[in-house]
Amino acid sequence: MSSSISVDSTAPSPKLVLDEFIAKALSSTPAELHPFFEAFDDLYTRKLWHQLTLKLFEFFDHPLSKPFRVVVFQQFVRDFGSKMNQQRLVELGTKVSKEIDNPQTQLTFLTSLLSRIDADISKEAYVLLLANIAQAKLVYGDLEGTKKDMDTAWKTLDQLEGVDNAVNASYYRVAADYYKAKAEYAPYYKHSLLYLACVDVATDLTPEERLLRAHDLGISAFLGDTIYNFGELLMHPILDALDNTQYDWIKKLLFTFNEGNIGKFEALAPLFPQEPILEQSYPFLRQKICLMALIESVFKRNANDRTMSFQTIAEETRLALDEVEHLIMKALSLKLIRGTLDQVDQKAHITWVQPRVLSRGQIGELNTRLGAWIERLSGVEQRVAPEVSATA
Questions:
Q1: What is the rounded distance in angstroms from the CA atom of residue 15 to the CA atom of residue 215?
Q2: Where are any strands of DSSP class E within the chain?
Q3: Residue 359 and residue 85: Cα distance in Å, rounded?
Q4: CA distance linking residue 382 with residue 392, whole number of Å
Q5: Taking Cα atoms as reference points, which of 29, 128, 115, 63 lies closest to residue 40?
Q6: Angle 109-111-114 (CA atoms, 0-180°, nearest 5)?
Q7: What distance lies between CA 256 and its chain's CA centroid?
Q8: Does pLDDT of 372 surpass 90?
Q9: What is the pLDDT of residue 105?
Q10: Pick from 329, 339, 343: nearest CA to 291
């Protein structure tokens, strides 16, 4: 059994002659694989398609099957693919496609499989395969084709309920990788977190993949022009991948931004040359930390104590007094806060601050404030109770 195969999407699959296929496989594969082919022969003959599917997954997971996966899929699996669960067929096909080194050949292989999937009947299988085709096009450098397939997949995925995690993960992974290639930080951040929500970080990603994903999420959080709350990322176990690595300072910087701590920001700034994109974006990052310092300052204040003088804001954001008004207007335009400006008295009255995913430390502060509020409420009750009793 030859391990090489020419993939032609226009050519029909050769008619399977089971005895010939099995005999050739037994004569050309290692003895350790022979029980698989003997089982294939038995299960195919008895038309036990579900059991045959499970046995095929075992075969494709066996290390020694690597050189034979493509030819087994093309010459054997495709013969009865229509009788299999279509999502399982796609999962097998995408697993096999990873053994094809040439990106164009891999894309042809996947596209050929797509022509066999009924998009109306097997919607999840269709989305799963289309997302993998988009991923192959992305590797091939076809950004326009990737985006087209992503959009087509999303139209179907958006209408489905109770979707298998593997299907969601395939879409969000390629979407995140596409936006990374386009250097669109906020969409990358969003789709990458959605991808991580669909997988088991500890088992589905290698240590190298975890480190790269955590690094890229950190960079996108810093540079995303609409991302001003890092709470969801800070609580995600993916960040543990940065510990004790050359990127551990990125994790510290994420917490620094979330706290709006300008002092710590300035202390970490000398490390920015390790990430040239951060060094080049220093003016933006400086403005962002000032905005987050403003948000944190407002958040920490009681609802009845949110009229702040420009002088107070200047001190808490370490800005010159004449730059405060521009900062507040920027925060208002980004919808990070709502309120009004009094330019004559140089005050800002903040009525609302953007809802946030809170870190554990911020939850602790909120708990302290809630406890103080309960104590004040209890004090009012104790003062009012005698008067209520007297008038009863």
A1: 49
A2: 307-309, 337-342, 347-353
A3: 43
A4: 16
A5: 29
A6: 115
A7: 22
A8: no
A9: 92
A10: 329
Tens digit of each residue's pLDDT (9 = 90 or more) over 243-299: 999 999 999 999 999 989 999 999 999 999 999 999 999 999 999 999 999 999 998
Assign 302 a pLDDT band (cuts: 50, 70, 90). Answer: confident
Residues 191-199: contacts with CB under 8 Å, at least 24 apart: 192/216, 192/217, 192/220, 193/217, 193/232, 193/233, 193/236, 194/168, 195/169, 196/236, 196/238, 198/165, 198/166, 198/168, 198/169, 198/172, 199/165, 199/169
Question: Residue 180 has which token pair?
Answer: 């990374």
**Sheet of 347-353: strands edge to edge?**
307-309, 347-353, 337-342
Cβ 13 vs Cβ 79: under 8 Å: yes
One-letter amino acid at 295 equals I
What is the chain's mean pLDDT, rounded? 92
Q: Which residue has the tokens 């209408």?
A: 159
For 131, the token pair is 């997302």
d(CA 304, CA 263): 28
Q: What is the mean pLDDT of residues 20-27?
A: 96
pLDDT in tens, 60-118: 999 999 999 999 999 999 999 999 999 999 999 999 999 998 888 999 999 999 999 99
Cα–Cα dist 308/323, whole Å? 15
Q: Is pLDDT above 90 for 330?
A: yes
Nearest-angstrom CA–CA distance, 32 and 53: 19
Other CB atoms within a 10 A radius of the CB of residue 18 amount to 13
